[in-house]
Amino acid sequence: MTRILTSVKLISKWSCVGILIGWFTLWGMVFFNSIPKSPQPLTHHTIPFNNHGTTIYFTQLQDGFRRWAIPVWLGLALFYWLAEFNLKKRVKNAGPKQPSEPN
Description:
Elements: H1 2-31, E1 47-51, E2 54-58, H2 60-94
Antiparallel strand pairs: 1-2
Helix pairs in contact: 1-2
């Protein structure tokens, strides 16, 4: 069970890092004006988004990522926290092993 919890903890940790990198990449594209300010059907930039009074146009993938990145990140962070908590609890409850008595 400890091996599974360690794997969950590791996967959750690096998934959170990946989502945060993607999140900052998306908003970096917004702030450095690489997302169009007029709809461009050829590149699929057709979903409007109001950014501080300026309308920019996302693709469906960018819009989906914008909507779901933070909830997924929070869920993965919760899995990480639960795995960490369970590992610490198991180590604390295990204590030192008693030597077995010879037969």
